[in-house]
Amino acid sequence: MKFSSSCFLRIFLFALLFFPCFGFSFSAFNLKGEEPELLSLFRKAYPDIQFKSEYNAFAGDWKILLSLEDRTAEFFWADGMFLPESEIENKNLYNSFLYKYDFALHDPADFTEEDIEKIRQFSSTENRTSVKGTPPFFYDFVYDCKTRVSLEQHIKKIPFLGKRSNAHERLREPLAKVEKEILESSKSDAEVKNFLDTLLSADSYSWRNISDSGNRSFHSLGVALDLLPRGWKQKNVYWAWRRDIDGDNWMRLPLERRWMPPQKVIEIFENNGFLWGGKWVIWDNMHFEYRPEVILFSRLRNKKNQ
Ligand SMILES: [Zn+2]
Fold first, then answer.
1. Residues 174-228: pLDDT tens digits?
2. Rounded to the nearest whole angstrom, what is the distance from the C-alpha of residue 149 to the centroid of ligand 1?
3. Which fold has domain 108-305?
4. Which segments constitute the Peptidase M15C domain (predicted)?
């Protein structure tokens, strides 16, 4: 039997009338294209996690199915936010966790008055309490920290550079690599050697919120580390403590009045997937945080901008 083109058209219209979803999935078939390009960053950053993507025509977004050991989770891609279906409507209230981390240090000497005003607004208690912050769902899955009880099964004693520290067991390997490279470097770099000799503490796990905000800190997952040297009070290490002393001018504090780990140490951490809080506009110079996807994303962006 031969069909004419008008006959095909009639069948198609009939299908649309009685099966509206047919038309939806038909158009979705044309629109969906390839899976989100940035998903490959997550596969690289978390090689032991399985990421399966499938296009969901009804939501007009990709569903990402994650599995790790005996755990599975299902999220919508949501521009790289990994949101559960119930949070899709709140998408605009979250900050994307794929953001461009600046490998270069912000020098306050270069700030314009406009920059200062933006930083004031960004750091205001009002702003910090009104946004939902980083979407926690992906990390809740990776680190099994939906509840404190489930998380604490994974918190282990992981000494770092001779200091006592409790951190998430997933950090054992990256921290061991960082430690090995720092120790190696200290043999020929006097600044790194001095950093090791004066290191006071390396604290990681602590169930707490970020100050001024209802969001959980990455210390609550056991994937952030605060490194403090002996005598750190002679310098400034954290923006909010400086704010308590110098009100609105904390962001103008010259770099030389802030405590800094050696550049080599910062680079070693970054090369192993850690961000250093000293490079944030809201600076936290003792803080290192394991976010391999952000490091990969930022390197990719830098490459594209070249
Ligand atoms: Zn910290």
1. 999 999 999 999 999 999 999 999 999 999 999 876 555 557 789 999 999 999 9
2. 22
3. Muramoyl-pentapeptide Carboxypeptidase; domain 2 (3.30.1380)
4. 212-290
